[in-house]
Structures are given as C-alpha cells and as structure tokens.
Amino acid sequence: MVAGLAGGSGKSVVSVGLTAALTRRGRVVVPFKKGPDYIDAGWMKLAAGRSCYNLDPFLMDEAVIQASFQEHGRAGERLIVEGNRGLYDGVNATGGYSSAELALMLNLPVLLVVNCSKTTRTVAAMVLGCQMLDPRITICGVVLNQIGSVRHRTIVSEAVEHYTGLPVVGAIPRLRRDIFPMRHLGVTPHQEYDGVEAALELLADTIDEHLDVLQIEELMAEIPGSGAVLPAQAREEVRAHGPSLRIGYLMDAAFQFYYAENLEALEAAGAELIPINALHAPQLPQLDGLYIGGGFPETSAAALAANAGFRQSVRAAVDAGLPVYAECGGLIYLGKSIVLDGVEHPLAGVFPVRFGLSKRPQAHGYSIFLAEGNNPFYPVGTEVKGHEFRYSTILDWPGDPAELSLKMKRGTGFMGGRDGLCVNNVLALYTHVHALGTPEWAKGFVDRCQSWKDTGQ
C-alpha cells in the first residue's frame, strides 16, 4: 500500500508513477484504490494498462474485500493499493474504515509518502508517530516528497533512518509544475486531460530517477493465495435469456465515474455493454437499458446542451419506458438545465430540476439510504451503503421531498433528507453505489431491463 500522512502528500504521484514505471519494465501490475474514488483509479488503470479495483471497508464486508483482492490480484506480478487521505484517517477518532484498517485486513506493508515542505527533522517524528500509533501496521519504507535541495534530502533522510530504522527509498524534488492538473479535492479525470501519455511518461521518469524501484520491489510482501472467491450474493451468474441485453453507459469527458466492478457485474449478469459519448453521438442507439454514472457535466455543459438531438433521444427513450439508472452527474444530466455563471444550459429535461454549482461541497462522504418507496430497481426495505460527492445545488424543483423514494439514514441526498427521483423506469440519485458492496444493484437493474425487453414494462 502506498499511503500518506494527509491528502496532498504526493501518494498519487508515487502510486501512479510507480505503477507506470513497473509496467514499463515489463511487470504485470494490478492496481487497487482504497476508498470511494474514481479519478485516481482511472489514472492507475491507464498506468497499469488494466482495470483498477476499489476496496473499501465501509462499502464492502471483509470477506468481499479479501475475495476481490485475491481474485483480481491473481492476474498480476505486483499489486499496488493506493490509500486515501492520511494513513490513519477514518470516519471517527479510532480510524474506522481507514487505509490502515485496509492494510491490516490484507496484511499489506505500507510505503509511506511524506510531504517535507518547510520541515526537516520533524519528518522523523511524524513517521515515528505513525509507527507507534499502531504497531500492527508494517511501514516498510518512506518516500520523501517536495524536497528542496540535496542538503534538505540528506538531513531528512538521515533523521528518518536514525530515529525510525526505516529505509528512505527515494526523494522527489519540488516539481516545476503539477504533473496532475488539480480540481476540487483531487486531480482532473484523465478523460478531460489532453496530455495523458506525456504525464504518465513524466511520472514514470520521475519515479525511475528519484526512487529505488528495485528496493521497493524487495520490500513488497508475498501475498499467499487463500482460494477466496466472491460470495455468491456478490456476483450474478450469466443468465440464459438468449441474446445479451444491450445496456448502454455514457463514457466521455462529462461522465466517467464508473467502478470497474459495476461494469463487470452487469456483464456477469448477461449484459452487453455499449459505451456512448453524450457529447458527440447523434442519438441513443437501440438499448435495453442505460446507465449514466457521475462525472463533471458542468465542465462540458455547453457541449452537452449543443447536442440537442442526443438529449431529445434520451428524453424520448425515457418516455418509452427505457430503464435508466443515473448517479450524481447522471442525475444532473436528466434535469431541465444547469446554470453556470449566469448562463442556463438545457439538459435532457426528464425531471423539472434546475441545477446550479457551488464553490463548496454540498455533500461529501459515506452515505446510507433505505428504499422506502417504489422504484424500478431496489425492493422496498433494501438498505444500501454508498457515498456522495457533489458541488451542484438545486436551484428550482417543484416536487415534494416526501415523494422521493429513498430515505437517507446517513448523508445528504437530493433534498429534505431523501434521494431518488423516479419516473417510468428511471431512478436518478446523488448516491454512488459499489456493485460488490451492493449486489442488489446489478440484479435489480438487469432484471428490470430484461422485463422491459420481454414485456415492455
């Protein structure tokens, strides 16, 4: 596991860069990302040339985490898990659902990345504190980041190694520019970045030049195979319904927040996945269902609005009963419009909602909802763990929050402590779900798509 002392420590640079450097050397790397994160996982996927999988103790049971790690990890020679926030940061004072908890669960050694800006010997104290806070955690090495000079590196390295006994396996200097363009609390999605290949090369070059990659490989632990498999309820067997269901999903610069596990769960349930670019496709193709994930539709609002034919085809498909599951950015796209800097951009118009955008997060963190009302995909009484992250605001909606089908037991939702706008076979919500933590999701979605295909209902 690559972990840091805090967000912004440089763990993404090390995680993605190390993955790219090892892959360039011919290693088969399977990447993982701790926590509900799409963007870093997307960069890890590009660096490894294979899917990155998310592991999260809040969203998934331990047995599912173990099985996912074992099953997906079998394809690789090197497994790298990028942590999130600080190593011990969790939802409470005891570090619940933290990166440290995941490292213990999977028996992973931790490579600790430390931002050394404006400090020297105190870095040793911070690393020593991480060692002592929970002796069960195996910190195997330290990477120094934001090093200003050779003298700076020497002092910090000697202090860390003297007081902690840990090897300093490299030091990354202050870079002239950010390798990752930043947005909100993290990096920009690679789908919106023109310099992806150059960035990955620069990251790999930076790691090769400033880190001892061979030493890092020696510090990696052997992960014994346990024979663990995903529990039956966390996977759907391929259905014998004849021809595959055609389920489309929007994948472009505006919509890119999809867990690999979610797409794989739909395929395992018998779906043929059809990627669609909402910015350029003239209309929806023939489908049996549509999945609209999250993303940053606000950055592409003008282009989404300009593609009127596609917007109209989505509205027409909804009117015809097409099953649609829309999360966060997908919810926004199904709204009437979004107002940005005083300009109103028309959207699909499925729901009469005008959205705006705040400079501060409107919801951020883990969530839990209870399916209280009728909806196309979740049986009434289903409780689902998820997460929220949005800057969008609801400027105008003529509905009544009591009509929303999902009650938020934790989190913000759409309005009034509730989430889940429904019409025909559409469920649109702010909450993101993970298919391995919520096996009901793929089953409910595919069952409704099959029913609509078979009966038109």
Features:
13 helices; 7-stranded parallel β-sheet; alpha/beta; 31% helix; 457 residues; 25 strands; Rossmann fold; 2 domains; 6-stranded mixed β-sheet
Provide structural commentary.
The chain has 457 residues and is α/β, with parallel strands linked by helices. It has 2 domains: 2-219, P-loop containing nucleotide triphosphate hydrolases (Rossmann fold, 3-Layer(aba) Sandwich), CATH 3.40.50; 235-455, Rossmann fold. The protein contains 13 helices and 25 strands. It has helices at 11-24, 39-48, 62-73, 99-106, 122-133, 150-164, 196-210, 213-219, 260-268, 301-306, 308-319, 329-333, 439-455, and strands at 2-4, 29-34, 53-55, 78-86, 110-115, 139-147, 168-173, 182-183, 186-187, 245-250, 255-257, 271-276, 289-292, 294-295, 324-327, 337-340, 343-346, 354-357, 363-371, 383-390, 392-396, 406-410, 418-419, 421-423, 426-429. It has a 7-stranded parallel sheet, with helices on both faces. A 6-stranded mixed sheet has the order 12-10-13-15-25-24. A 4-stranded mixed sheet has the order 17-16-18-21. Strand 24 and strand 25 (426-429) form a beta hairpin. The longest helix is centred in the C-terminal third of the chain and has 17 residues, at 439-455. The model is unreliable at 233-242 (pLDDT under 50).
